[in-house]
Amino acid sequence: MRQSESESQRAGGTGWRAVGLCAFFFLVIAAFWIQKPIRTSRFLSDVGPTWLPLVKLGTALLVLPAVLLYSSLAARYRRAALVNWCCAVFGAGSLLFWWLFSRGYAGTPALSYGYFFYLDIFNSVLVALFWSFANDLTPPDEARRTYGLVGAGGIVGGAVGSAITGWSVERLGAPNLLLVCAGLLGVIAALAQWLSRRAPAAEAADPAPRSGALAALREATHGARLTVASPYLLAIATLVSAYEVVSNLIDYQFNSAVAARYHDDVAIAAFLGRFSTAANLVALGVQLLLTSWILRRFGPRVGLLVLPLVLGAGSLGFLAVPLFGVIAATFFADAALGYSLNQSTKEVLYTPTDAATKYQAKAFIDMFLMRLAKALSSLLILAATAWWLPDAHAVHWLGGLGAAVAVGWIVVARRAARGFAEQTGDATAAA
User: Fold this and answer.
1) Which of 103, 178, 266, 290, CA to CA, is 20 to 30 A from 424?
2) List of residues 6+ apart from 90 with CB closer than 8 A
3) Taking the alpha carbons of 223, 224, 228, 231 in that order, is the dihedral positive or negative?
4) Are the beta carbons of 12 and 248 closer than 8 angstroms?
């Protein structure tokens, strides 16, 4: 009888935890997607698509200090306090940009650069923080049952956030939407406190507090050492990097095509918001109908292969038929699958690892290496536009490079799936 009651309590805790994490991820992604169409439209209007690779290269340089600070805070503070710190910093940032945009500084290229950098770091830190928080609370067997629901929360957040911008930016104005984001960050902090209080003691092992600058630096660099020393983590790092290279190439091709079709920043923001809403709704369908079933039935071995196959085919398609509809469909597929099946499957790979890996190595991979891969792909784009492409409008030639990287991505994804099978002893997860 007591055993039955205990199992019932654990099941109830699992349910509340899944719902709470789903809401947490919803709020993080909604706050980002409210701002993403605004950021892109401002940059395309004030600076132009030619400089997109340069700004992404600059982002990579700024992410290293963010990784150091995040890792230091992760080593010093309990998980709920870490969420509070991040929400306070980014809440203040949203208010600052609201004030700057509202006071007539909009249209200044320097402000567009600054906001682009800020929002990339916003997304990198908060998404990495959320998944570290979730992985720390969730055992591997529970993750395979519940991460489909948790990932769906982020997809709904993307659909809602982009819809808010797509259908209200023309009436409310972009600056006022940043106030909404600041409010969402306050709700995130409160929700993290609630989840931490409900976590059982056995599942609430926070990193031990450290002190001193040298100790903080050791914690920050430990993630890199953990990654390099583990073939399994190296496989995860490589597939994450390959995705970023291919996705960045497609993003540049798509935004160049959008800038050629629209010339007003409000029109661009409205289009991108509505386009992203549709992509996120499709992603929600994939997450609800396919992701959980694929993870339960096959483990990571299938989920890791779908996106590279689709994006590789789309890149080849745009190379052969350079029409707006082709690159829009490829970008749409990236948005629909990247935030659903691919994201949830990648996060499952971390669940068999220890706490240090979940916080420090994962932060190194998801924030530093991910941005480094974007920087390298940005350098490739800059080099291609300067020396290889026949003219500025021949961006479809980059599809050949994207397809080649996708082939390597597939090879590494199979290796990561085999590593997960070895970590968990689950034969169904082997490629």
Assistant:
1) 290
2) 122, 125, 126, 185
3) positive
4) no
The candidate with the shortest Cα–Cα distance to 288, out of 193, 190, 151, 121, is: 151
Which amino acid, 222?
Answer: H
Task: Tell me which DSSP letter residue 395 carries.
Answer: G
Q: How confident is the model at residue 8 (pLDDT cuts 50, 70, 90)?
A: very low
Please check the confidence at residue 407 and state whether its pLDDT lies above 50. Answer: yes
Sequence-ordered list of residues with C-beta below 8 angstroms from that of 139, at least 6 positions apart, any chain: 203, 351
What is the rounded distance in angstroms from the CA atom of residue 238 to the CA atom of residue 216?
Answer: 26
User: What are the contacts of 93-96 at 24+ separation with CB within 8 A?
Assistant: 93/118, 93/122, 94/35, 94/178, 94/179, 94/181, 94/182, 94/185, 95/178, 95/179, 95/182
- Show the tokens assigned to 209: 């507090």
Q: What share of the chain is helix, strand, coil (3-state, %, to 5)?
A: 90, 0, 10
Q: The pTM is what?
A: 0.77
Q: How far apart are CA 204 and CA 202, in angstroms?
A: 6
Give 286-341 as a DSSP string: HIIIIIHHHHHHHTHHHHHHHHHHHHHHHHHHHHHS--HHHHHHHHHHHHHHIIII
Encode 371-384 in three state secondary structure. HHHHHHHHHHHHHH
How many angstroms separate the CA atoms of 388 and 385, rounded? Answer: 6
User: Given the structure tokens 């990648």, which residue do they identify?
Assistant: 346
Residue entry with tokens 């902090």 = 189
Report the alpha-carbon distance of residue 209 to residue 218 in Å, rounded. Answer: 13
Q: What is the pLDDT of residue 212?
A: 38
pLDDT of residue 359: 67
- Please give the Cα distance from 224 to 217 (Å, whole number): 12
Task: Report the distance separating Cα 308 and Cα 381, nearest Å.
Answer: 20
| Residue 3: Cβ within 10 Å count | 7
Q: Are 80 and 196 in contact (CB under 8 A)?
A: yes
Residue type, 331: F
Angle between helices 109-137 and 2-46 (to 10 degrees): 170
**Pick from 174, 206, 165, 172: nearest CA to 76:** 206
Give the torsion through C-alpha atoms of 19, 25, 31, 36, to 10 deg: -140
pLDDT greater at residue 6 or residue 60? 60
Contact 330, 403 (CB under 8 A): no
